[in-house]
Amino acid sequence: MITPEPHELSELVRQLHAQATPWLPAGLGSRLGWGPAVQDTATVVSCQRLNRILDHAVGDFTVTVEAGTPLRQLQETLWSHGQWLAIDWPWGSEADGSGAGSVGGLVARGLAGGLCHRYLGVRDQLIGIGLMRTDGVAARAGGKVVKNVAGYDLMRLFTGSWGSLGLITELTLRTTPLPPQRRGLLLQGPLEALDGLRRWLLRSSLTPELIDWWSPALSLRAAREPKNALLLGLASVSAEALADQSTEIQGRAEELGLHCQRLDPERLEALRAVALGERSAQGWLLRLGLLPSHATQLLAAHALRDLPLVLGAGSGLGYAWAAAEALPAYRVEELRRLCCRHGGYLTVLQQPPATAVPAWSDVPSRALIEAVKREFDPKQQLARGRLPGVLKAA
Ligand SMILES: Cc1cc2nc3c(=O)[nH]c(=O)nc-3n(C[C@H](O)[C@H](O)[C@H](O)COP(=O)(O)OP(=O)(O)OC[C@H]3O[C@@H](n4cnc5c(N)ncnc54)[C@H](O)[C@@H]3O)c2cc1C
């Protein structure tokens, strides 16, 4: 991995372009191995040295950072002003956030956790982007203020691009006030009753931060009954409003025969840490999506047995993981077919060294993805063999 200084970047990329050298943009390199393998011959160009917070417009709730800025550093700066980047964090990292990646890596992966229920995904928080094109020319799109987003929406295109279109150098993001009050509820019981509560909640005027399905295996890891569960996160400016919400939900849950446990902020964080925590680097990590109304069919499926799974009840997006020996490859394929049958997909982010399940299947828009790729990377230099949504990329 090479780590150029900001002033060296353009010249380096121009040289790589002139020689048509395969290369891979990288952040801090914390999760480069996810998805299809990185070609051994590719030069990995890290933007680790692009690590400055350029502008925090506190009153406008926006922040502009260089792409290699560690997410942890950004969150700490924002917290000191009573703000945060509203994403699940720290994710898959040490409790102190030291294993977390860069802001650019977060955007390039484009993955969001359960908090997207209230705050939407990473791409929705992005209002401007700075890029280094494959020919070494700098480009920019979007703006620095929320209402001034003009021109092509490269922000959405580059979110989830996995380094396949260009190097992200700078990002302007929307920030959010830290909610002063947080509480949680853990609901357990029969799947149908939980689904009844989910439907009621999504139609209600209540606005939880988080409504996550938990599989029985995940409940067990959190030292709870090995049963399906819904974890709710509630946030408000007022403690009274929060208590009212909890009481209303608890009342409804009891009518449906569910067991309801109230969680203070520490207990809520401890439970969320179980779902966000680090997994074995040798095991499976699967990204799953399906129609949210079909989630119970996944939770009841034999193929899911014994797997920890967390799935957004509103988004239908989540992830499951397992040690190498606990999950044979055919079951992953079975889960993929199940997700596809229910309007979704399965991406293999990480798998044991001995297996070779394709990271993703071809998506219907493959031709369009390849056409966009040709425009941005005519020499097909970037992220060879790792074009998201394309089964066998160049
Ligand atoms: C549900 C979910 C939630 C997550 N939430 C968090 C979170 O809160 N915090 C967190 O740290 N991680 C989170 N992650 C992991 C996150 O998606 C990234 O994998 C991680 O942030 C990578 O950081 P990195 O700097 O080490 O990137 P790397 O491991 O270096 O790169 C990751 C990918 O992004 C590309 N890439 C990286 N930087 C750039 C760039 N500047 N320009 C173009 N492409 C680039 C690379 O080519 C590679 O494909 C989450 C993952 C999931 C599944």
Structure characterization notes:
The chain has 394 residues and is α+β, with helices and mostly antiparallel strands. The chain has three domains: 53-177, Uridine Diphospho-n-acetylenolpyruvylglucosamine Reductase, domain 3 (2-Layer Sandwich), CATH 3.30.465; 181-276, 2-Layer Sandwich (Alpha-Beta Plaits); 284-350, Alpha-Beta Plaits (2-Layer Sandwich). It has twelve helices and 17 strands. It has helices at 9-18, 71-79, 103-109, 116-119, 154-158, 191-203, 216-221, 239-255, 265-276, 295-299, 329-341, 366-376, and strands at residues 23-26, 43-46, 53-57, 62-66, 83-84, 126-132, 138-142, 167-174, 176-177, 181-188, 210-214, 229-236, 259-263, 284-289, 309-312, 317-322, 345-350. It has an eight-stranded antiparallel β-sheet, sandwiched between helices. The protein has a five-stranded antiparallel β-sheet with strand order 3-4-8-6-7. A two-stranded parallel sheet has the order 1-2. The chain starts with 8 loop residues before the first helix and ends in an 18-residue tail after the last helix. It binds flavin-adenine dinucleotide (FAD). The site of flavin-adenine dinucleotide has 36 residues, from strand 1, helix 3 and strand 8.
Features:
3 domains, 5-stranded antiparallel beta sheet, 17 strands, alpha+beta, Uridine Diphospho-n-acetylenolpyruvylglucosamine Reductase, domain 3, globular, Alpha-Beta Plaits, 394 residues, binds flavin-adenine dinucleotide
| Rg result | 21 Å
Query: N-to-C SSE series?
Result: HEEEEHEHHEEHEEEHEHEHEHEHEEHEH
Query: What molecules are bound to this protein?
Result: flavin-adenine dinucleotide
How many helices in DSSP terms?
12
Main sheet? 8 strands, antiparallel
Query: Order of strands in the sheet with the most strands?
Result: 13-10-12-11-15-16-14-17
- Alpha carbon gap, first and last residue: 22 Å
Mean of pLDDT: 92
Q: Helix fraction?
A: 25-40%
Q: How many structural domains?
A: 3
CATH class membership of the largest domain: Alpha Beta
CATH architecture of the largest domain: 2-Layer Sandwich
Number of E strands: 17
